Q: What sequence folds into this?
């Protein structure tokens, strides 16, 4: 049912004003990049980014380790701020922010520059310098990008931890990064409730000896504990900070940020991105994919704690000189039309969100968007998981009023920037397909031996050539980097996604092939949830699988065996859900917990998650069970399911 029945070509009007006009223009660009990649990327880098010093060579490839714009010097904050101050953008709104309670702030490029310089001086005042590491654990307020850009300005590598992560998850990230400073806030607002970030930080910090300073922004004004000597109020340090802080010329390969993401084990991977190549691609894709024009108001609804927020709320839009909207809270607060109110109020032109959000909104009914004037919209985007054609059609019709192209953007934390997506003024759309690769990106679909599969066949999505914004390594674990991404299929980058390509060369992404779940567009590993569950004293063993969910894409389903004892299953299930929220974060809570006397295993003792996945997906098990040690386990689980 993936085959689209209809394609959607951009209107003449859209094409005429687009950065890339028509499929032929795209083809020329794509072929040029494929034939002369170094020349191509050098041109893009020169055009899109300001450099303090040019590179000696474009690219160095010591497989699987890449360097881009070798020897060049630049600075991400300089590109996002300073260079705009000499242009008409000086007083343009850079960040258009709305808090959940309805408070607003409009920061011009000039004003944002001032805040960043001050805070960079605050960090310097705490002794931070290039090469140091900072953890940022903040709500969606303007000071979050201020903190990121202040770090970038002086060469401090930041790692933003999503505010929905628990103290335990935060602790693991602080320790793995070896951060010396944590930048946080008292709390933030979500669905009218305070998310108490400082409390969680305090809990995490009991076992983080590397951290010398904690800087706390006052957002909600609620009472928090301040540890003397360690904790400082942002506003107090900021008070006397100088506004003079030149951006440091940093090596193109200077580590800009580490972002933790779920892999196939219980331990999250710190994905490292560096400066020059990353900036080049996030900036270029703002034009290629979002067709950004100076007069646009652009809104990506992601949280900055995920890569989408890094690349397409902060670095991409600001480097490209956009007005980027930031909203603190939940889409359904105080009612289901909050997003459409924001679109109407600020006349948003480009709107970028996730299929999960779209499906949740569909369920609430068309009356919510229909009550608002959405005529300012000219382009829509989707990211995070495959968008099902029905949700695509709704988005196109009810939100875009059949006027706005939809860019279905495929990429990953690891890729840094969008790699497969329509160029909206060039590529006819097929609902459910991310369409064609961007210039300089050479994907393929292969089998495990690396042989390309025939068109229409399912296979592994790989990328054949390095690209400027690719991850450089896994923080502190180059071996794992090699194994995870460059060994499964020799010589190419292994994405972990299954896909197929149709006769027009369009890519259809089918989802993960590994033990990574995608819940509401958030990446989560089955192992991560399993390790959290088995840390609970009642749990003997756990197996976690994702099952299809109409709204969230996948839902976490846990099979649990218990230690001996007299357990009340209902209470314990609730307790375990809370436990997972405490260990990882609320978004990781299992939707379903099933207690069982045993888990299906191979003779060598490996849990056969494949069978459990089949069980929760199709309610029966028909797949290969020949390696199963005890067939009775599956029979009993299936019978139990029928009783429920
Ligand atoms: C940006 C982001 C990456 C995984 C990726 C895919 C899935 C993302 C799409 C998609 C189909 C898309 N980074 N994914 N975008 N699948 N169509 N347009 O989401 O690191 O958190 O996740 O998300 O499985 O491998 S991520």
A:
């Amino acid at each position: 049912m993936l085959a689209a029945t209809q394609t959607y070509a951009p209107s003449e009007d859209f094409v005429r004003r687009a950065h890339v006009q028509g499929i032929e223009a795209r083809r020329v660009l794509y072929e040029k990049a494929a034939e002369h990649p170094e020349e191509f990327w050098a041109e893009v880098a020169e055009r899109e980014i300001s450099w303090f010093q040019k590179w000696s060579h474009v690219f160095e490839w010591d497989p699987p380790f890449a360097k881009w714009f070798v020897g060049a010097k630049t600075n991400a904050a300089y590109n996002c701020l300073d260079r705009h101050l000499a242009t008409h953008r000086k007083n343009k709104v850079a960040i258009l922010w709305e808090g959940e309670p309805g408070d607003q702030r409009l920061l011009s490029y000039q004003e944002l520059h001032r805040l960043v310089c001050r805070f960079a001086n605050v960090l310097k005042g705490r002794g931070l310098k290039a090469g140091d590491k900072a953890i940022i654990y903040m709500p969606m307020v303007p000071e979050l990008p201020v903190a990121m850009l202040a770090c970038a300005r002086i060469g401090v590598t930041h790692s933003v931890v999503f505010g929905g992560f628990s103290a335990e998850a935060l602790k693991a990230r602080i320790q793995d990064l070896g951060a010396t400073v944590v930048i946080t806030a008292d709390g933030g607002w979500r669905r009218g409730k305070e998310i108490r970030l400082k409390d969680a930080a305090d809990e995490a910090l009991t076992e983080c000896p590397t951290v010398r300073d904690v800087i706390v922004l006052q957002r909600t004004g609620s009472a928090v504990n301040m540890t003397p000597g360690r904790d400082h109020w942002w506003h107090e340090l900021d008070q006397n900070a100088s506004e003079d802080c030149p951006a440091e010329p940093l090596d193109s390969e200077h580590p800009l940020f580490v972002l933790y993401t779920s892999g196939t084990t219980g331990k999250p991977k710190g994905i490292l991105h560096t400066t020059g190549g990353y900036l080049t691609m996030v900036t270029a894709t703002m034009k290629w994919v979002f067709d950004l024009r100076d007069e646009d108001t652009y809104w990506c609804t992601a949280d900055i704690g995920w890569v989408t927020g890094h690349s397409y709320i902060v670095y991409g839009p600001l480097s490209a000189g956009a007005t980027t909207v930031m909203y603190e809270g939940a889409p359904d607060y105080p009612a289901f039309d909050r997003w459409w109110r924001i679109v109407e109020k600020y006349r948003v032109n480009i709107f970028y969100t996730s299929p999960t959000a779209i499906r949740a909104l569909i369920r609430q009914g068309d009356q919510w968007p229909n009550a608002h004037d959405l005529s300012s919209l000219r382009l829509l985007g989707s990211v995070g998981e495959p968008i099902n054609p029905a949700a695509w059609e709704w988005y196109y019709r009810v939100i875009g009023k059949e006027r706005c192209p939809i860019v279905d953007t495929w990429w990953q934390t690891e890729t840094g920037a969008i790699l497969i997506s329509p160029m909206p003024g060039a590529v006819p759309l097929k609902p459910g397909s991310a369409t064609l690769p961007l210039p300089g990106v050479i994907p393929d679909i292969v089998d495990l031996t690396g042989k390309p599969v025939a068109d229409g066949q399912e296979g592994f999505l790989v990328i054949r050539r390095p690209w400027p914004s690719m991850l450089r390594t896994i923080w502190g674990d180059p071996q794992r980097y090699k194994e995870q991404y460059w060994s499964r299929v020799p010589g190419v980058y292994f994405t972990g996604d299954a896909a197929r390509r149709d006769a027009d060369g369009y890519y259809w992404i089918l989802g993960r092939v590994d033990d990574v779940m995608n819940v509401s567009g958030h990446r989560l590993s089955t192992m991560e949830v399993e390790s959290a569950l088995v840390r609970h004293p009642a749990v003997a063993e756990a197996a976690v699988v994702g099952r299809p969910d109409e709204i969230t894409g996948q839902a976490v389903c846990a099979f649990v065996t218990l230690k001996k004892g007299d357990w009340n299953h209902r209470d314990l299930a609730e307790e375990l859900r809370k436990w997972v929220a405490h260990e990882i974060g609320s978004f990781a809570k299992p939707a379903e917990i099933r207690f069982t006397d045993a888990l299906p295993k191979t003779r060598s003792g490996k849990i056969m998650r494949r069978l459990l996945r089949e069980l929760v997906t199709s309610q029966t098990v028909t797949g290969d069970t020949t390696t199963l040690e005890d067939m009775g386990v599956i029979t009993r689980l299936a019978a139990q399911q029928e009783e429920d």
